[in-house]
Specification:
Elements: H1 9-23, E1 29-34, H2 40-51, E2 54-57, H3 68-82, E3 84-89, E4 94-100, E5 107-110, H4 117-120, E6 125-130, H5 133-148, H6 152-166, H7 168-171, E7 174-177
Parallel strand pairs: 1-5, 1-6, 2-5, 6-7
Antiparallel strand pairs: 3-4
Helix pairs in contact: 1-2
Length: about 180
């Protein structure tokens, strides 16, 4: 299976080329943001493979269903500057293993809250994935089923608050139509 299966090859290839050009010989750091169900994870997987980058998913960092802000903060206080992050155990409700990020490899960080003003200053490139609300909800609930359904509105309120305050779409170098990202 190709990393860009389900995506227009030109989109992944084009963004990868833009990231490398923007890096100007420095370590590329890409922030991929968007609301739940927009296609962030799928696009991030394809882009990380194209860049041969390490991929950090904020779903592994958020400290529970009220953790969007903490996950966002970890991007600019821990993941990028310290090249490390701590996994959150959704089963035990505790912070667990520390993961070290190779500071010599390109880095892709994906998740809602990745593209804040503070994180953008430390990154090479920002990507926003956009998709209408009904399609996003359908994708997310199809993907995560009953596990996510009781928390959809709770998480959506955090996404809205983050988007109002940080304006991640405006911080992005490119906005990608999430309907082009097949899950």
């Amino acid at each position: 299976m190709r990393a860009d299966e389900g995506l227009p090859v030109s989109t992944v290839t084009w963004v990868a080329a833009e990231v490398m050009a923007s890096a100007r010989g420095e370590r590329p750091i890409v922030l991929i943001d968007g609301r739940s169900g927009a296609g962030k994870s799928t696009f991030a997987t394809a882009l990380a493979e194209a860049l041969r980058a390490e991929l950090v998913r904020l779903d592994d960092v958020y400290p529970g269903w009220d953790g969007l802000e903490a996950g966002s903060e970890a991007v600019h206080t821990e993941i990028i500057p310290l090249s490390q992050w701590h996994r959150w155990s959704w089963d035990t409700g505790e912070r667990t293993t520390r993961h070290v990020v190779d500071p010599a490899r390109p880095l892709v960080i994906e998740g809602c809250g990745a593209l804040s003003r503070a994180a953008r200053r430390l990154a090479t490139y920002g990507v926003w994935l956009e998709l209408d609300d009904a399609s996003r909800k359908n994708r997310a609930l199809t993907r995560d089923g009953e596990t996510y359904a009781p928390f959809w509105e709770r998480w959506a309120r955090q996404e809205e608050a983050f988007s109002e305050r940080e304006r991640p779409r405006e911080l992005a170098d490119v906005v990608i139509d999430g309907s082009t990202v097949a899950l």
